[in-house]
Amino acid sequence: MKTYINEEVLILNININIEQDYEALSRKAAQIFAKKIKENPTGAFGFATGSSPIGLYKELVRMHKEEGLDFSGITAFNLDEYHPISRTSEHSYYYFMQEHLFRHVNINQGKVNIPDGMAKDTETECCSYEAKIAEAGGIVAQILGIGLNGHIGFNEPGESFEANTRYIPLAEMTLNANAQHFSNPDEMPRHALTMGIRTIMMAKSIILLANGPAKASIMKDAITGAITPLVPASALQLHPSVNVVMDKEAAAFF
Ligand code: GLP
User: Fold this and answer.
1) Three-state helix/strand/coil letters over the chain
2) What domains can be seen in the chain, in order of their start residue?
3) Is residue 149 flagged as an active site residue?
């Protein structure tokens, strides 16, 4: 049942942008994100991996090269990383971020933070990740994609909204969805280090991206359905500042 409270939250806090196609979605998301960087040139910013933000990163690189968008003062925190995986693996999220964004802009590599996929003591790694975010003053704007099962980061259905950065097993659906990126799917790590929902919710603003028809159903559930840990992204309905940027296909049920 759609509740009155949900309607209120939706109207007050979630700004929904429906764009013609993936290129337009990427440009819109880049405009929102670049504005935050300009307003907070020494702030901390949260990045995501997956196919959804690739166009946004391409546009941010263009803005850096052609318009001088300056990354030199910011600190970066990525949402998640597989475990175990080395930074040099082309499947690592560290590698992904370097390929799609970081090595193309003037970010200070010493301020790039991605959970350590080779950490032996995962609990210490997760605690120190939380501490680093706090030391950096909290995340100004967090980019998010969404999994087919509603996961954000690697927070799978059923995880507590109160969770901090932690080590978790991946859901079968996520293993299946992400296996396509591995030449040998058996090499895909079955665990990950991920910011928790609480960590994500602490970001001052959120930009959630979704494109393609496969995301239509889960976007409807996440943004207008019940707020429940069974749909991790539904927690965003409780966040004070969310920009959802979708293409027409992902927004088919809006
Ligand atoms: C992965 C990432 C998520 C991402 C999701 C969706 O599982 N851990 O952060 O949002 O995939 O990926 P895509 O954008 O490729 O659909």
Assistant:
1) CCCHHHHHHHHHHEEEEEECCHHHHHHHHHHHHHHHHHHCCCCEEEECCCCCCHHHHHHHHHHHHHHCCCCCCCEEEECEEEECCCCCCCCCHHHHHHHHCHHHCCCCHHHEECCCCCCCCHHHHHHHHHHHHHHCCCEEEEEECCCCCCCECCECCCCCCCCCCEEEECCHHHHHHHHCCCCCHHHCCCEEEECCHHHHHCCCEEEEEECCHHHHHHHHHHHHCCCCCCCHHHHHHHCCCEEEEEECCCCCCC
2) 12-247 (3.40.50.1360)
3) yes
